Amino acid sequence: MKLNKSLLSCAVAIAMGTSFASYADTDNKSASSSQLSTKITTESVENTLTLSQTLSENNAYLYQDGDSNTMLVTTIGNNNDTEVVQNQFGNYAQVITTGDNNTQVYSQDGVANGFISEVTGNNNMLFVSQFGQGFFVNNEAINIVTGDDNLIDVEQGNGGHWFYNMDMQGNANEITSLQTGEWHEAEITMLSGDENTLDLVQDGYWNTFKVSSLQGNDNELEVEQDGDRNAVAFSAISGDANEIEIEQDGLTNAVTFAAVIGDDNQIDLDQEGSLNTIESNLFEGSNNEVSATQVGAENLMTADLIGDNNELTSMQNGDLNEVYMGVIGSDNEFSSSQMGDLNSIHLANFNGTGNDVDLVQSGDENTMLVQSSYPDVSLTSNDNDIDISQSGSQNETVVTLAGILDSNNNQIDISQDGTLNLVDMMVEGNNHSIDISQEGEGNWVSGIEQSAFLVGGENVSFSVTQVGNDNLVEGSVIGYDSTVSVTQIGDGNTATITQM
Question: In this structure, are strands 81-87 and 411-417 parallel, antiparallel, or unpaired?
């Protein structure tokens, strides 16, 4: 169900009866001429309260109790304290702050309330709290921040709340948001600057967090969602040395990255529950670290990466898990571990040099597919280290390196422990070292779509060790100065190797 998010426009129309811009203009309003302490209390409906402060060290306490009230506060100066309280239905507050060292507290308790704050300056502290059920007519809090070293703390409870940072420009700002209940949404449309910190906690049902654009360096984003049907989406991340940590606990959780561009970024993703997905369109850069952990059933993790010296780690514990990695680059490290049933790992477009691949599966009916030069078979992949381990029943491994041009100096180690294990490969190039070990019943080293495996090139070392029953080795090793070793221990073994 998609909720109505037009609260602000409705609240402004109900509470003000005129345009938003007419109240935003405070140039002609009377200003304070001396230090003062202001306390204003209004208990009624459809009231409008306007306060303008222009000097330093001012204090204001504003309270409205009723429906469809409007509050407009403008503070220009230093060391001002402003507290705004609104209760009941359809209230709207707008606070504009320009100056240094301001502390502001805003509280709304009820339904269909809206709040907008515009902060320009440094070292400001902004505390926003909204409470009240809002499943169909939600409460909204919007912050627009320009400046450095600002602190924003937003707390929303009971359900049906929306929190937006429309345009945040500056450095070393800190945003903290806590949303409890159901039907919450938090969104950052633009965060531009360095060394900013965001800490978001959503606890309930059907929570959403979105980042439309993050531009800058050394930013820290930490998101925690606890409940069902949670979603985190990043449209664009551009910058270096950013840290992103996302933790989801519940059912039907999703994390999506549209694009990540930059170097030395660290991304940690943790999902616990069922029907979890992690999807990335593109990571582009160098020295990035991405770690994804999924605990539960029917999990999916996909990532596409362009760059060098990156680390990509995936761990899945549960049933029906699937991992896909599309990679172009050199000196990258890829690690994937799956523990459970019906797991599959697919590493494709593996073009580059000096990459390290470590893939582990423990469970039943696991499959692994490592493809270099796919779908462009004219590309090569050299000096890579591929280590594959499968423990369980009906494991299947397929390795394809190159198609037109040779891929050279690759180390391939495959270990299978279980029943009905199968290894197929087509490797072309020189100076490869291939070691296959199978222990169990019905092990095969042969072709899947075709009748046999194929290894071509010079100075290739090809070794197969099989321990078990009904083993089969069938294929061709084509080239010069190559060495083939086949060891079979068990009953009914067959070995057919063609060297040309």
Answer: unpaired
